[in-house]
Write a structure and sequence with these properties.
Elements: H1 2-11, H2 25-32, H3 36-39, H4 53-61, H5 75-85, H6 89-105, H7 113-127, H8 129-137, H9 141-150, E1 155-156, H10 157-164, H11 168-180, E2 184-186, E3 191-194, H12 197-205
Antiparallel strand pairs: 1-3, 2-3
Helix pairs in contact: 4-5, 6-7
Length: about 210
């Protein structure tokens, strides 16, 4: 199958092939023992990351051109959704979906802040708990150590090195991986923090650290 993919990519310019996955080609090679990069040597890799805050805002209040949620979500509600999800498109849509279903069930037209808390709890405990579990399972011990430290709040590289006990080179590689996976972000003051507070809440709820 890989040989066929490589032939299509190299010798059939009128055919475009799009692959989507959660791991890079070199990571797949480590996991499977197959030299993925050699088969996809001409493939261009694009990182699909988090939404910009303005795009997340539009997704919340205007999910389609024919429907607007401006009257459903107040400014504080939208701000809370963006903050809790870290602008992760899946989680933004998950919260909005749970909120709309909840409001329809209770025959209400306007969301309140307590509704956000209800939606988040349902997502991390029921409807999307497997998503968070899968994110955790894809981390190694070094990454889990750093995530656990960042639960307490933003920390710089010196603080992470002192508290984790990790070698400087290993720590830097660990943080690069967490940054690439959008689990961690780097602030302007050179500190690191968890990107998605909902993931931190899942970690605490499931006592994984």
């Amino acid at each position: 199958l890989f040989d066929w993919f490589r032939e299509l990519i190299q010798f059939h310019p009128r055919i475009a092939i799009l692959f989507s996955g959660v791991s890079r080609l070199d990571e797949m090679g480590t996991l499977t023992g197959i030299s993925w990069p050699s088969y996809f040597i001409n493939v261009r890799t694009l990182h699909i990351g988090l939404l910009h805050s303005t795009d997340a805002h539009k997704l919340i209040v205007e999910p389609t051109e024919l429907f607007s949620d401006d009257d459903v979500y107040s400014h504080d509600i939208v701000k809370c959704i963006i903050q809790q999800t870290g602008c992760h498109p899946l989680l933004v849509q998950a919260i909005c979906s749970e909120l709309i279903e909840h409001l329809n069930f209770e025959k209400r037209e306007h969301a309140e802040l307590q509704d956000i808390e209800w939606a988040i709890q349902k997502i991390i405990e029921e409807s999307f708990k497997d998503y968070f579990y899968e994110q955790w399972e894809r981390t190694n011990q070094e990454q889990r150590t750093c995530l656990a430290l960042l639960l307490a709040g933003p920390t710089d590289m010196t603080g992470l090195e002192q508290q984790s006990g990790l070698d400087d080179q290993i720590l830097r590689q660990t943080m690069r991986t967490l940054l690439r996976r959008d689990l961690v972000r780097k602030n302007d003051d050179e500190t690191y923090e968890m990107t998605i507070p909902m993931f931190g809440r899942w970690m605490r709820l499931n006592d994984v650290v």
